[in-house]
Amino acid sequence: MSLTKKRKKELDQLRSAAEQLWEEQQDLLARANAVAKEASRQVGHLNREEVAPRVRDSYHQYVRPGMEATSRLAGSAKERLVRDGIPAMGSAIGTAMSMADYARDARARSYSGERSPRKVVVEEKSGHGAGSAIAVILGVIAAVGVLYAVWQTFRADDELWVADEEPASPASE
Predict the structure, then answer these.
(1) Are 38 and 109 contained in the same domain?
(2) Which of 8, 55, 101, 117 is 20 to 30 Å from 149 by CA-CA measure?
(3) How many domains does the chain have?
(4) 149-160 pLDDT, tens per residue?
(5) How many Å apart are CA 78 and CA 128, to the nearest integer?
């Protein structure tokens, strides 16, 4: 392909202009990288000096008291359940089971024609009965309920981190 001198000169000028543009872009990218690196360093300083102390103070002011109050509430609820609830449930279950035993015994006597109640010798059972198993199950259900309430309490604390004011942008100052 044969080019005229004028075309060759124009192509050489275009090539030199493109090379000059390429060098300017490389310089611009190098300066942009330097600015970005400095901005990253400044953000790290800002984080250590401003953000971390504010987060720490907010944690101690808002989250920690809520956690302590929830812990105290859960402890008192557990204690109250162990002290009052489980023995009452066990007593109610034991009473219901003894009534069922008495009704079953009365029904058996009526079928056999026996009128006078016979003396029942109560033998101590070894091991745990159905009443203690039911009481343990109810205790586990109550503990799961308390844990669920604690989880719901902590889940609602997400809204505490909403900023009061919008941060001012550098362009608006």
Answers:
(1) no
(2) 55
(3) 2
(4) 887 777 755 555
(5) 23
